[in-house]
Amino acid sequence: MEKVTLTMKEVKRAEVIQRAVSGEVTVQATTELLGLCERQVYRLKSSFKLKGVKGLIHGNRDKVSPRRLDSEIGEKVVKLAKGEYEGYNDSFFTEKLGEEEGIRISREKVRQILRKEGIGPKRKRRRPKHRTRRERKPESGMMLQTDGSRHDWLQGRGEELTLIGAIDDATNEVPYALFAPCETTEGYMKMLMEIAKEKGLPLSLYADKHSIFQIERHTPTLAEQLNGKPDKTQLGRALDELGITLIPANSPQAKGRIERLWGTFQDRLVSELKRFNAKTIDEANAVLLKFLPDYNRKFTVEPKDSKSAWRKIDDRDLNKYFCLKYSRVVGNDNTLSFMNEKIQIRSSKTRYSFAKAKVDVHHLIDGRIRIFYKGELIAEEERLANSQQNRSEKVRKRGRITNKSYERISLQP
């Protein structure tokens, strides 16, 4: 039997298509979860019936397109757009290329070439907005709406905090939330990791266009042009590796459930924090962990479909995804610099010396540092030379989450 290797994204696609073939999920729901059109969903269903999981892998994988545009023609198009035909709109420029220059390519290809080089359209047109009501997802775990709420949660008893949380679109359940000094990548990763441990992985995440989730640039960088795709944030990279579809919301009204949740929390949770006289972030998180189960019992609704879309994942694998990843080059003395510290790398069976080697550094959200060479763990630091106590103030200002147990704090009203 031929071995088929799938990415996390393809595993998710296989699970959803399999459920669509069995009739558990509608075609409309499948298009939303996978971000595909109905025609493509029908094609995938047919291919899955004939070839199984192998039928979901694109046939052109690792192949060079025979219709790829010659690089010299692309360079000539860019040169003409910046020179003789500067200021021409895309359609008119395409016509002139065919009529005057003998370059017969489609308008869409011309548009792609120009946008890749940072040449914008001559005029920007904005369509009128039209909003319609969106029905809940039929199954729990299909979509989580997430956001952060900056508010005076402690009512002057302590610093102003940000509440980071998520709500299940199908059931209104809040699987996890936490207080942080501000909205940070680590805060969202901590939240998603706890949700993954307790419930599993959702199929999609609905969030605003915060820079934590995606990078918005009008002009692509050199690295993006060379890679042929936009860069991802640390959180966007983790979601992509886990096969979680990130759905950006274009307005606060689009993610109304999480926005209404903050209104409820700013009423009920604030009262609970006052009742228990919470003054610090740790005390506030302790109250929150006690508050969430009571809230979910009162406000969770039954989904339309009793089946669950949550995807289970081994707890031991979570640190591979929910971490900050960087690339470093090892120095001649087998050390690398990270966060103003020197980390010594010992020799191993894989390689006697790692001098000049390119390694991957994983900064876990609990503070640990792991260094990998070609996928193999070669070094791990429990903490850096500067202790957490010496830099706690800097860490809290950046909004990093400390590795404290909120459950151990006693609650006394």
The biggest beta sheet is recorded as: 5 strands, mixed
Q: What is the CATH class name of the largest domain?
A: Alpha Beta
Per CATH, the superfamily of the largest domain is Ribonuclease H-like superfamily/Ribonuclease H
* Share of residues in helices: 25-40%
* CATH architecture classification name of the largest domain: 2-Layer Sandwich
Report, as a whole number of angstroms, the end-to-end distance.
Answer: 64 Å
Gyration radius, in Å: 25 Å
Q: List the secondary-structure elements in sequence, H or E.
A: HHHHHHEEEHEHHEHHHEEEEEEH
Overall SS class? alpha+beta
**Physical arrangement of strands within the biggest beta sheet:** 3-2-1-4-5
**How many H/I helices?**
13
Provide the low-confidence segments as ranges.
385-413
Q: Tell me the β content.
A: 5-15%
What is the fold named in CATH at topology level of the largest domain?
Answer: Nucleotidyltransferase, domain 5
Would you spell out the secondary-structure blueprint of this structure?
Layout: H1 8-22, H2 27-34, H3 38-51, H4 71-82, H5 90-100, H6 107-116, E1 144-151, E2 161-168, E3 177-180, H7 185-198, E4 204-207, H8 222-227, H9 234-242, E5 245-248, H10 256-275, H11 281-299, H12 318-321, E6 323-329, E7 335-338, E8 341-344, E9 358-364, E10 369-373, E11 376-381, H13 392-398
Parallel strand pairs: 1-4, 4-5
Antiparallel strand pairs: 1-2, 2-3, 6-9, 7-8, 9-10, 10-11
Helix pairs in contact: 1-2, 1-3
Describe what this molecule looks like in 3D:
It is a single chain. The chain is α+β, with helices and mostly antiparallel strands and 413 residues long. It has 4 domains: 8-56; 71-116; 144-299, Ribonuclease H-like superfamily/Ribonuclease H (Nucleotidyltransferase, domain 5, 2-Layer Sandwich); 322-382, no CATH class. The protein is 36% helix and 15% strand. The strands form 3 sheets. Strands 3-2-1-4-5 form a 5-stranded mixed β-sheet, with helices on both faces. Strands 6-9-10-11 form a 4-stranded antiparallel β-sheet. β10 (369-373) and β11 (376-381) form a beta hairpin. α1 packs antiparallel against α2 and α1 crosses α3. It is globular, with a radius of gyration of 25 Å.
